[in-house]
C-alpha cells in the first residue's frame, strides 16, 4: 500500500529540477488535497543550489500519517554534481543521506538510518545528474513532438541511478489551480523497466515543471504549481489503506487457510505479472490480465533460486550487524539447535516483543523497531529479517496481500502485507510475526532486502486487483499450465 512513497520520490526527482526561486506546488489525489511541495533555487556564483520539501498527509484505517522528504543539491551552472542531501521521515526518526565531492573526484557518502551511521565512497555514475542537470537536459533535447531520449537521474535517497525514458508529446494549454491557462510542453517520463507507470509532466520553455500526473493505487496523483496560500491550504482526509483492499470472494475460514488454496485473480490495466513464484506459491498466466495463483505449504522444493549475497548482508535498513540486534536475536533463539528452530523462536519472540501496532509509522528500520517496539507488518518483517541474518540465516522480506476478517471498518478483505522468508534446507520458508503464522492467504507479489523502495516497487498493482475465486485443494502441484500463456517463470519480484 505504500507505493505512493515511491511515486512521490520519482516526482520529486523530476520536480527538483523544476522551479526557480521560491515556488510552490499543491499535491492532490483524485482532486483531494493531501500535501505540498516547496522548491527553492538559488544561484551563488558558479553554483546552483536547489532545495525541495515535500509534505504528504494520508490516513490508514483512520490513523493519520504525516510524511516529509527534503532534498538538496549543489551543482555547477553546467549541471555537474557537487553535493547532495536527502532527509526522509517515514517513522519516528529521520533518515539522512549526504554526499559531497572530494578533491579526487570521489563522493564521500554518509547514511544514517535508525540512528546508525555509515560512511562510504562513491564513484559517481557516468552521466547521472541532480536537479539542475536534469533541467538542463530537458532544455537541451528540445520540445519537438515525437522526440525521444533517455536521461540518468541520480536518486540521492538510495544513491542509485534511475534510467528515465522521455518522450515529447507536444504543446498543450493547461488550466492551473488559479484557473489561469498556460501553454506548456507535455513530456511523458518512465523509469526503464517500469514503463506501465509513466509520469506525465508539463514544463515551460526553461524546463521548469508546472504540472505532473502519476497513477497511484487507482488514484490520480497530481502536483500543480500555485501560490503559497494554495499549496499550504488545509489537507483533506483520504484513506489509502481502504483503497488498496481487495474484497475476498468467500470467507477464508481457519480450515481453509491451513490447506493449499487456488486463487483466480484479475488485474485491471495489467502490465507485468504482479505475482511471483516462490517455494510456497505457483503462478499461471491465462492472458488478458487473469492469473491462477496456487498458495500452500511444501508445494515446491528447490525450484526457486537460492540466496543472493544481499540476503545475508547488513544494509542501512536491515542492520543485522548492530550489537543490539545481534543480542536480541541470541536472546530470542536461546539454545535452539537448528535454523528452523531458531526461526520459529525468533517469530514467536517478535510476536510478543513488538507491543504497539503503530499505523502512524510509515516505514521504520530494524534498529529503530528494536528500540521502539512499535510498528505494523513491515516493521515486523524487517526486524525478523535482520535478526535471522544476524544468526547467519539467509533471509528476505516478502511483500503481498493477506486475508483479514476485519480491518479499517471493512470485512473479509485482503490487505497489503509483509512477512519474512528464510532459506532453510534448500528452500525458502515463510515466517510471519505480525500475523503469528503463515497460511495460504498470503499471496506474494515481491521480495526484497528490506529497503523501503524495494517494498514500494513490488506493490504497484494494488488498487487494480480483483480476486474472483478462492478454491480449496489438497494437491495443486500437478495442474497443467494453461496453453494460452504457460506458467510464469520464477522471479524475485521488485528489482
Task: Put the structure in a nutshell.
The protein is 18% helix and 42% strand.
* Total number of strands: 24
Helix content: 10-25%
Secondary-structure class: alpha+beta
Question: Main beta sheet: strand number and arrangement?
Answer: 15 strands, mixed
Q: Give the C-alpha Rg.
A: 23 Å
Strand order of the largest sheet: 8-7-6-5-4-3-2-1-15-14-13-12-11-10-9
Q: Note the total helix count.
A: 10
How would the global form be characterised?
globular
User: How much strand?
Assistant: 35-45%
Structure in words:
This protein is α+β, with helices and mostly antiparallel strands. The chain folds into 2 domains: 3-236, no CATH class; 245-472, C8orf32 fold (Roll), CATH 3.10.620.30. It has helices at residues 3-15, 131-141, 228-231, 240-244, 254-257, 323-333, 339-353, 366-372, 377-390, 452-458, and strands at 21-29, 32-44, 47-60, 63-76, 81-89, 95-101, 107-113, 116-122, 128-129, 148-155, 160-175, 181-191, 199-203, 209-216, 219-226, 246-247, 261-267, 281-287, 290-295, 395-407, 410-424, 427-431, 443-448, 465-472. The protein has a 15-stranded mixed sheet with strand order 8-7-6-5-4-3-2-1-15-14-13-12-11-10-9. A hairpin with a 5-residue loop joins strand 11 (160-175) and strand 12 (181-191). It is globular, with a radius of gyration of 23 Å. It starts with a helix and ends in a 23-residue tail after the last strand. Residues 1-20 and 478-491 have low confidence and may be disordered.
